[in-house]
Q: What sequence folds into this?
């Protein structure tokens, strides 16, 4: 596996409304835990569409991992200026990430034209990737279900990796247990 698409919830879908929400730390830790073994097995590219939430947090994880690993970040938004209606702090983060990424190219030129752009983005990412990593609860898939449905059509079942709520609980517990005060 050389190319992996990562996606998942937007922040509001998981009730995260501030960039300093402590749950983001756990989500990033879970993403890191899943990415490192894949990178060590030869993963070269991580692709995202750059949507806020899981994808931008993944981008931050990848940029951190690049200090130790030879992995590249590609960002393929569905259209130009997708961040234009986001909160200003997230727009600034998006701009920093897109300028730091190894590759950035919107799928469609120009601004938002219609929902077809999101479907085309999902198809393109699924088609260009060897596998995908989704942060998703199968009982409440939210907007992630759109990519998941396409991935199931295009990819082998074993190429679809999912970070579940139980996986997040495990990461939270691992981090808590790593704190010396936990045992005191």
A:
């Amino acid at each position: 596996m050389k190319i992996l698409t990562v996606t998942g919830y937007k922040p509001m879908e998981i009730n995260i409304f501030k960039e300093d929400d402590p749950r983001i730390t756990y989500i990033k830790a879970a993403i890191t835990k899943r990415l490192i073994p894949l990178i060590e097995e030869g993963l070269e590219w991580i692709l995202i569409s750059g949507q806020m939430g899981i994808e931008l947090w993944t981008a931050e994880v990848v940029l951190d991992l690049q200090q130790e690993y030879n992995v590249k970040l590609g960002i393929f938004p569905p259209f130009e200026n997708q961040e234009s209606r986001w909160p200003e702090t997230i727009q600034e983060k998006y701009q920093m990430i897109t300028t730091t990424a190894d590759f950035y190219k919107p799928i469609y030129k120009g601004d938002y034209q219609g929902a077809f752009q999101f479907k085309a983005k999902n198809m393109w990412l699924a088609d260009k990737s060897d596998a995908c990593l989704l942060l998703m609860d199968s009982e409440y898939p939210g907007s992630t279900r759109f990519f998941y449905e396409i991935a199931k059509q295009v990819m082998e079942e074993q190429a679809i990796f999912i970070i579940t709520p139980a996986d997040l609980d495990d990461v939270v517990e691992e981090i808590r247990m790593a704190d010396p005060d936990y045992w005191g």
Summary: The mean pLDDT is 97.
